[in-house]
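Hi W.,

Here's what went into the run:
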Amino acid sequence: MLRRRKNLPFQSNADGTYAVGLDPDSRDFLADLPRQLVTVIEAGDEQSTRRLFPPAYHRESDSEREDEYRRFMRQDLIESKRASLTLLSETAHQELLTHEQLLGWMGAVNDIRLVLGTQLDVYEGLDPDDLDETDPRRPALGVYGWLSGVLELIVMGLAGGEGRDLDGGPEDYLEYETDDDSEPDSEPNSDSGLTDS
Amino acid sequence: MPTAAPIETVESDTDIVVVTDQPWKVIVWNDPINLMSYVTLVLQQLFGYPRSKAEKLMMDVHEKGRAIVNSAPREQAELDVFRLHEKGLWATMEQDS
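Here's what came out:
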């Protein structure tokens, strides 16, 4: 999984860039996921994307302002997210990322998690291992967990290694893939579980 | 009393829009998807908070269900909310009435 076993997969260099230590299969998977999310967004699936576009004004008495916020800001928000997703696709195979590019990766990976987690109805304390072997959510939850690990490592890289302590080292965050070579990316176009229905 | 007070010439039946200058509260809500480390980093980056303050706000979100991460005039608060939405945090805003 990790090319640089002793370093974080997102390691800052002296010149401000970040070295990316991910294997080719992981990169293929990260390059392909954004396309799937863009499909979901373009399908206008409000239910799946409700965590991407929450209301700004939550009080009933501010409903007119909320309408205005949606009217003027929703498209900007979509474009902002689309830009990050496109960036992730286009730079997924780069060895070096700028700070801005890694921030884009962070936002895109989290947006994918938000939609996947919404579709899977993720709750705090959910452990995929507790689910029945035949539970249809297991493969997608595996992808979700893997993306959570990637995001945690990106955050650690950006925070200069002052992320929260890890049990057993950062490799464990990506253990899903190392422990099970059938998912998530044995095929570059494997289905993440993101659905556009 | 000021001697020249134009406001006093306003007819009592004029529609006066009461513009309160109460700041708007920018609120981040707990959700089961966003990682604690991620929320902390976003609060540091967007508001320039030191790590300790961002961590305390994140823990408030996690344990109390919500935290006020900034107070500002409406336009600024709305921009804050937008930037939080860009990062995928569940943010809203409200004003004390």
